[in-house]
Amino acid sequence: MGRLAFLVRAEDEGSRQRDAHRTGPGWRIRIGTFAATAAMVSAGIVLGAGPAAAAPPAIKLTSTSCPNEIVQGQEGGCVTELQNLLNAHGAGLVVDGQFGPSTLYAVREYQAATAIAVDGRVGPATKSKLYATGGSAPAPINLQSSSCPANIVQGDKGGCVTELQRLLRHHGYAVDVDGDFGAGTASAVRSFQSSYGLTADGQVGTNTKRALYDTDESPSTGLDLRSSSCPENIVEGQSGGCVATLQSLLNGKGQSVGVDGSFGPLTLTAVKAFQSASGLTADGEVGPNTKAALYSNIGGGGGNGAPAPINLNSASCPNEIVKGQRSGCVTELQSLLNHHGADLAVDGDFGALTDSAVRDFQAEKGLSVDGHAGPNTKAALYGAVTPPSSPPPGGGYGKILDVAAAEVGTVEGSARANGYGSAVGLSLSTSNYAWCATFVSWVAKQTGASSYRNSYVSGWVKQARAGNYHLSVTTSPQPGDIVAFDWDGGSDFTGGNEHIGIVRTVSGSSFTTVEGNTGNPNGGSDGVYVKSRATNSGYDVVFIRVR
């Protein structure tokens, strides 16, 4: 999916040329047990978040009028500017100048996505990164709303242009998100139109708007259940981003439900099981106590801050970072570990939990498990090490599952994940677009099973239905088949809410998959993970045989 949008990918996203990928503006990253694609994130994206009615005038964060650290509980123009900046990166916040829980969550998401100390405090490093990676822009406005002109054209400015630019980035175009429709944005619009078979006139009218919102994403898991955006009690029968978040959190607590944003019987069962395990009344209603339990033990800081992060490979950090040390090197280490799915408070203090997280990471990556963050561990944290289990290219369709399974655990935004784009001619960070179909294309390229490559889910389905490229549709799935999901139903794969993966096991109507651009079941960043799916869970699936 393409997002710089961390709120976007609910957990899984289909891919499109934005899949050409949720930058997000992009990050789709979740902290701790917050599973996402998910991206995030940003991630899904919260598209079309409008400005608040009465926010104080924005004040540049680096001005003397703003405190050195902007923290939860503060209000005013500095917070307005912060919220605008976060929205320019896909947060989808209501811009009201109030630093509340939603803004805190967005700050932590952004910090995790950019490997800044995840403490929820907007200090010099976070301010600098916010301006360096996008700058301020008017709050985005949904292009299809009455607030935007029928045709958005070069020379226009404002929130409609911000939204346009965010969507273009979501689709993989490197445009500045500044709310100003200049020559660069016009060029990206024409290129986008050409890729969709539209008239490449650079004017964003009805057809172009519709195509821009074809983002192949599932419901957003960026909503905090405790915020005013979600009902006080979430119950069976409800649907939407709050339910998607609930499902993602349940998975992070050991349950196994599809993240489809629909509170059905399976989600109800999972809620009751979680409540029982947590010593709560198992009534299936997600009220304040259940929400608190779901969010318990999720890291993210917010306390007294942490030493400013220092790149682990710099001369300022020791060759080996070990238990007992406290410094910016440890801050960076903890933030990177969280980026790979750990659940640490980022405090710059290398204690027992950090030691355990380092050992877990080393074991996952096939490194020497000693708890010392030395050269090899540092390299792996920065995504520079190729997983040793990866099989060599070749082997045809019989090797599809082997190649895909060897990538499980690869984290979005890492060098390994970003390399998947080579299959479709992309050099983007996977933190910036929806890449599930790009991953499938990479697997096909590695095995030589099919010459077809496409970053759109719809493309894979179309070619399979036409019987092209050694692809066909099958109703008897087997391990190694490809599976496409239409979260909206209808099996038309044109609604912008699709996903794709590779079948791992099959048991009746249930099956497991290896998917890219999907949420970590144990919490943390999106990446390549194994998921449990079914053919009777409220979404449509198409199985694709490669022969």
Descriptive notes:
It contains 16 helices and six strands. The chain is an alpha+beta fold and 547 residues long. The protein has a six-stranded antiparallel sheet with strand order 1-6-2-3-4-5. Mean pLDDT is 75; it is low at 1-52, 215-222, 297-305 and 384-392. Helix content is 30%, strand content 8%. The two termini are 27 Å apart. 58% of the residues are buried.
Could you provide a short overview of the structure?
The protein has 547 residues and is α+β, with helices and mostly antiparallel strands.
The average pLDDT value, as a whole number, equals 75
Secondary-structure element order, N to C: HHHHHHHHHHHHHHHHEEEEEE
Stretches with pLDDT under 50, minimum 5 residues: 1-52, 215-222, 297-305, 384-392
Report the count of strand segments: 6
Task: Set down the secondary structure blueprint.
Blueprint lengths: L76 H12 L12 H13 L10 H9 L26 H12 L12 H13 L10 H7 L28 H12 L12 H13 L10 H8 L32 H12 L12 H13 L10 H7 L18 H6 L9 H4 L17 H12 L9 H10 L4 E4 L7 E5 L11 E10 L2 E9 L8 E8 L5 E7 L1
